[in-house]
Amino acid sequence: MSARKHFQPIAQRLSKILYRIGFLLMLVIVMVYAVLSYFDVAENLHAQLVSLVQEHRPRLSAALWDIDPIGITEEIDTLSAVSSVAGLVLTTPSGARYLRGDTNETAKELSYTVELMHKSSVIPVGSLTLISDRYEIWKQVAYRVFPFALAQLLFVTGLLFALQLFLRKVVLRRLDALTIHTHLLRPDHLDTAPPPPLFESPVRDELDNLLQGFANLQNNLLHQQQQRGQLIHALAESRDQLEVEVAQRTDESFYLSGFLQLLSKDAARYLSMPLDGAKIGLEQTLKETGQLMGLDALIAIHFADDSQKGDICFWDKDDKKIRTDFNLGKRSLFQLSKKNLDSLSAFVMGIGGDLPDESDEAALCRDLHLTQLAVLPLDFNGERLGLLFAGVSDQDRVCSELEMRLLPLVAGLCSNVLAHRRQQLSLKEAKNALLAANTQLERLTRHDALTGIANRRVFDERLEQEMANAIRDQQPLLLIVLDVDSFKQYNDSFGRHEGDIALQKVAAVLAKFAERTGDCAARIEGNEFVLLLPNTDLHVGKLLAERIRLAMIKLGLVQEDGSALTISQGLAVYSGAEEISAANFLRMVDKALYRAKRSGNQVQVLESISDQGAGKR
Length: 617
Hints:
Blueprint (H helix, E strand, L loop, with lengths): L2 H4 L3 H56 L3 H12 L6 E5 L5 E5 L8 E7 L9 E7 L1 H51 L21 H43 L3 H20 L6 H16 L3 E6 L8 E6 L18 H7 L5 E4 L9 H9 L3 E9 L2 E10 L8 H46 L9 H18 L3 E8 L2 H8 L1 H17 L7 E6 L2 E7 L3 H17 L12 E8 L7 H16 L5 E4 L11
Parallel strand pairs: 13-14
Antiparallel strand pairs: 1-2, 1-4, 3-4, 5-6, 5-9, 7-8, 8-9, 10-12, 10-13, 11-12
Helix pairs in contact: 2-3, 2-4, 4-5, 6-7, 6-10, 7-10, 12-13
InterPro entries: Diguanylate_Cyclase, GGDEF_dom, Nucleotide_cyclase, Rev_trsase/Diguanyl_cyclase
Organism: Iodobacter violaceini
Pfam families: GGDEF
């Protein structure tokens, strides 16, 4: 049996125990009260019998002394009529007996016997026995016990219910809160687990102290966990700082050799690096170079030009960020550095000295918490591409002569990378422009310039292709040729511009009916259009043609006289079994179109193309 089946709420267990104890105590009390009531009733009945005997004893003794049967009978009948007397036995000295009521099994009945004495005799004139049935005793006991038991039941039930409510309010709420809290509390969720609720009450007990203890324990564990994380972070920072210090204390020759190897490796890497990886590669170079030289920051500023936006590639030892309001498209940035670089190949400036607070260089130092900046130009073929800033945060640290000789090598590598990237961007833009021009040219050669749907060239190719597919797949091919009725009159009335708009609307309607793969809607000349629908039989073709005719009317285009601008259509289906060329097939459908145009706004169907006498393909 699983542990889950052994679980029983403490509220249920406490309720069962309280009710058992309460009802057991009630049963004991009722039983004690019943016993006491029994003896009290028996004593009262005995006292009644004694009282009756004392009351009737003189008259009954006189009747026996006088041997008065009538008097004896009257006294006996009077005694037996009393409700507490169940039976009566009167015995005379001669042995005569007078019986009344139930006198059998007297051993089981409560009785009282007395000798009857006459005042004129010293010898008893008889004996009288009064018998009371135990049923009367139990009856009176029941009359006493049942109300008492009911009162006790109501009292005990109310007391237990009140006690249960008290336990639920004082004990069980706290136990439930403690259970929920211990269920949610996990070592890895100390910061997200809610603290246990603390209940307000005029007095505190052990459960309140336990809840407070769990809350304090959670806070202490969370605090210790945070201290441990801070200690680990501090140890990691100390380790990084120690590694930088060890790198700074290496031998100068080894330092120089590693620096040159780094630049050589990066230069070789840039030769095969894609365009989108240039910035990442440059930032990696700045990071590796800065760490090797023991700098705190290296920033390469690439100025904007006509072909590309400006950019910033930087590395900071502590991953600080540069403010986002530097607009690299403005040439007015870093004017102090540009002015000094007109006469110097490189220079160093510091906060509080020759670096004004309002300059962009000072803002850069404040963003990255730097105290000194070494500034070098990024030039390529005499053109200023940008600036290179090497920064340190220690005010007492001075860039050595070796570092000032090595930084131009870094600047030269950055200049070459930026120039190469700019050339690649220019080539990419030229390539994209060429591809766009080719795409546009291809589109113009395959689409009608006015309506945007396919032109005559595409339609001829698709007609040849789909007729071959119809022969191969034995699937019907539907061709609809349509012409705008009285279009010249429309052009003359409203002008060429409105005529072009009308043709564009007709093309848009046809395009909606050519949405499947393989469908083709095209303008083949002037106001004549075609719709080529593979795998479409003649019945469906007639329905589509009628829908196209109605859709044209719904466009709301009207002639000058108010009549609707309509279309005429000719259609036929090529089943793949006829031997006919694409040109002849189109010519035959044109004939159906001409028949439709005689009356206008109608559809003429070429029922069979095999009987038209077309030439073979």
